[in-house]
């Protein structure tokens, strides 16, 4: 009997599986990456050696109004470590600069004050100017230009009403943007709901290049990078994280060049061989990305690449914050999966519904695979309404899957489906 720990909320769940059924356990190399330097040392070294730009303190000289864009409560960005150092670097160049920390929520709910304190620490929460982006407040937005896709680029006014725009984030494989980090701080991070929705349209996400690990020819990425350039992101800072959400590498400097080098680093560590199984078990890597069902397609899409024909997918996600969006909940429970997919496929890009992307990916997966959701927080009746099968533990889910695929089914486990990039 093998016992495999699956990330779940702030801890793990134990999966018990017979050796005869276990075909493979796929761990991305980033989980094994080690470094002798402390997290603070890694951050400071990256800032002291920027890629393709001057040092941030040099760029900040003479700048009066600075906007520093950071991640929201759904991301594991270690801002408690990075933000104080970034602020120090900016003030080294411009001691009297008016700095606003702008939380990039995209279309997510607002980050609460308590969450800000947890993310940033008491010193920043008490002493810095913090703004939370609201994609639904048109009064806080401004039109910039048309994007390559034809979408209108409307962004938070704090991104354009400043002398210096800086972003921070972390890089990992992203199911339709190729990789996270860099340009995503702007789009979808601080754009209007209309701009985000069109960037996440059915047409854009149906493109064969809109997949994890690919940026070249990816229409979603191309709009994102164009938008970030248009608002003149002068400096970007990204980190790579291990399984414990600790910083193991950092990349600072030019919006495009430093991010590309960071993506290459992640690709080298995240890629795992494709192993096909009758049953694939995965997770969203625990908190914060497993706090709602809205984020579940990220690990489910990874699992789908390893699920054989009609393979069963098991996703472990706490969903402690519920489904994650009313639009998603309504669309994914509004009929049979084929009907749902047919309905959203006919929606023009400019009429894209908020959270439609999530429905598109879930529907694509459920059309081919039965999906079992392991959650101890989300009402199991709700799970059934969204066309999934509920379970309270990985072992219970595995028994359900054996009932579908047979007791001799071969099982592939991808403990962190978000961090893994499936290769050929």
Q: What share of the residues lie within helices? A: 25-40%
CATH topology of the largest domain: Rossmann fold
Q: Average pLDDT across residues?
A: 96
- Profile the largest sheet: 6 strands, parallel
| Structural class assignment | alpha/beta
Rg result? 21 Å
- The CATH architecture of the largest domain: 3-Layer(aba) Sandwich
* Shape type: globular
Number of domains: 2
Task: Give the strand order, joined by hyphens, for the main sheet.
Answer: 3-19-15-16-17-18
Describe the structure.
The protein is an alpha/beta fold and 424 residues long. The protein has two domains: 2-26 and 273-422, LarA, C-terminal domain (2-enoyl-CoA Hydratase, Chain A, domain 1); 39-269, Rossmann fold (3-Layer(aba) Sandwich), CATH 3.40.50. The protein has 15 helices and 20 strands. The strands form six sheets. A six-stranded parallel beta sheet has the order 3-19-15-16-17-18, sandwiched between helices. α3 (79-93) links the parallel β4 (65-71) and β5. The chain is globular and about 70 Å long. It starts with a strand and ends with a strand. The model has no long low-confidence stretch (mean pLDDT 96).
List the helices and strands and how they pair.
Layout: E1 2-8, E2 11-17, E3 22-25, H1 39-48, H2 56-59, E4 65-71, H3 79-93, E5 98-104, H4 113-120, H5 122-127, E6 129-132, E7 141-146, E8 152-156, E9 164-170, E10 173-174, E11 178-179, H6 193-199, H7 202-206, H8 219-230, E12 233-241, E13 247-253, H9 257-270, E14 271-272, E15 277-283, H10 297-304, E16 307-316, H11 326-332, H12 337-345, H13 356-368, E17 371-374, H14 380-385, E18 389-391, H15 394-405, E19 411-414, E20 421-422
Parallel strand pairs: 3-19, 4-5, 4-9, 5-6, 9-12, 14-20, 15-16, 15-19, 16-17, 17-18
Antiparallel strand pairs: 1-2, 7-8, 10-11, 12-13
């Amino acid at each position: 009997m093998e016992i495999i720990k699956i990330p779940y909320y702030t801890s793990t769940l134990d999966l018990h599986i017979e050796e005869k059924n276990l075909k493979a356990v796929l761990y991305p190399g980033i989980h094994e990456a080690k470094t002798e330097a402390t997290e603070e040392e890694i951050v400071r070294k990256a800032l002291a050696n920027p890629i393709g730009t001057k040092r941030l303190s040099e760029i900040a000289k003479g700048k009066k109004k600075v906007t520093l864009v950071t991640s929201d409560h759904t991301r594991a960005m270690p801002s408690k470590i990075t933000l104080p150092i970034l602020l120090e670097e900016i003030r080294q160049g411009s001691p009297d600069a008016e700095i606003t920390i702008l939380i990039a929520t995209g279309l997510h709910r607002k980050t609460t004050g308590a969450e800000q304190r947890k993310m940033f620490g008491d010193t920043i929460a008490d002493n810095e100017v913090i703004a939370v982006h609201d994609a639904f407040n048109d009064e806080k937005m401004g039109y910039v230009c048309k994007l390559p896709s034809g979408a209108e680029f409307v962004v938070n006014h704090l991104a354009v009403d400043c002398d210096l725009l800086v972003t921070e984030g972390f890089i990992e494989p992203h199911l339709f943007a190729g990789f996270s980090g860099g340009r995503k701080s702007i789009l979808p991070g601080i754009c209007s709901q209309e701009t985000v929705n069109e960037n996440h349209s059915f047409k854009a996400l149906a493109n064969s290049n809109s997949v994890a690990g690919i940026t070249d020819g990816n229409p979603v990425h191309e709009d994102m990078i164009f938008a970030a350039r248009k608002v003149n992101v002068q400096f970007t800072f990204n980190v790579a994280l291990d399984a414990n959400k600790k910083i193991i590498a950092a990349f600072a400097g030019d919006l495009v060049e430093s991010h590309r080098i960071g993506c290459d680093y992640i690709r080298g560590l995240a890629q795992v061989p494709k192993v096909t199984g009758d049953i694939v078990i995965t997770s969203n890597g625990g908190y914060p990305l497993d706090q709602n069902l809205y984020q579940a397609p990220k690990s489910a899409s990874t699992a789908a690449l390893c699920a054989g024909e009609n393979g069963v997918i098991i996703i472990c996600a706490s969903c402690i914050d519920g489904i994650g969006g009313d639009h998603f909940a309504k669309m994914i429970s509004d009929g049979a999966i084929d009907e749902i997919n047919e309905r959203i496929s006919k929606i023009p890009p400019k009429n894209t519904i908020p959270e439609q992307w999530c429905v598109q990916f879930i529907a694509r997966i459920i059309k081919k695979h039965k999906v079992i959701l392991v959650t101890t927080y989300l009402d199991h009746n709700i799970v059934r309404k969204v066309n999934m099968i509920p379970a309270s533990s990985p072992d219970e889910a595995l028994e359900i899957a054996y009932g579908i695929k047979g007791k001799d089914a071969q099982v592939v486990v991808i403990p962190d489906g978000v961090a893994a990039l499936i290769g050929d």
